[in-house]
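From the shared-data thread, chain only:
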Amino acid sequence: MRYLDAAQLEPENELILTRLPDELSTRSEITHYVEEAKSAMNLQGAYERVPVIERENERVNLGGTWFASRVLRINLEKAEEVFPYVITCGNEFEKWYSEQSLLRKYYLDTVSGAVVSVAQEKLMSLIENQHNIPQTSRISPGSLPDWPIEQQRKLFHLLGKEELEKELGLRLTDSCLMLPSKSVSGLVFSAEHDFESCQLCPREDCEGRKSPFDPEKAKYYREYPL
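Structure, as tokens:
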């Protein structure tokens, strides 16, 4: 397991600001929220290098653990390894955030989401550089109906559930949500082309959408012969 600290994951303010909606607030005010949020965070992460052992129909064996997902199976068609990961803002931020007013929570929730999103991209770049991979993509449990949130348990198993709680204070609820709640997880994998779960999701009213729905790509994943 490789652990990452804020020095490796924390994004620059300018990059965070590019991920925030223009109408959220004035630039000076939102910059203040970004600085406040980052100062309250103990941004940490971890990832592991896991072999792709076997593929079978609509599931794939990663490091001895079977994951059921047609999309994941197709994405890992040529992969020899994957990198399960977690990133968290830390329990310190969770406690501080809970003490803020409703209005401040609205801004801080958006800002912390942007911080974690960019931190994921920094982690992907780190993996690319450390393991000589030209391009990576990522996918998270619960991001698509095809890979439900319950698969989070298997992801935590790959990384070591007890170790994550001991080292990062990160744990799963019975409903497979992460605590602290300002946390993300997923799999990074080598990819010939950009992949975003959003490209396969036709839902229109999604505030977290990162790329437009791509009907041709959705058709490709539905009809890909396994």
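The first helix runs from residue 6 to 9.
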